[in-house]
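ingest -> validate -> predict -> emit
validate: passed (alphabet ok, no gaps, 86 aa)
predict: started
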Amino acid sequence: MRKQQIAIIILALWLTIVSIFMLLYQQFDFEIFFVLGFIGILVIVTIIEPNYVQPTYLKYIWYVIAVGILIFGAIIAHKVMQLFIR
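emit:
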């Protein structure tokens, strides 16, 4: 198997584990799910990234990560605003 396929399988497994634990805890929150999934993507990209060459698929993954950082920032700003409004 190629690294891309292994990364997809590991990410799907990670998101499934996170979903199962959230459902067992009976507290499914999309913000926490997004943050844990985003952390999983960052870890997987760091692991599969080659040292000396950059495949074309990694270029597009960095765009996805940039969008994820923007969404993560929006979630943090929303949580901070919730603290100040109370």
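The helical segments are 3-24, 30-48, 56-85.
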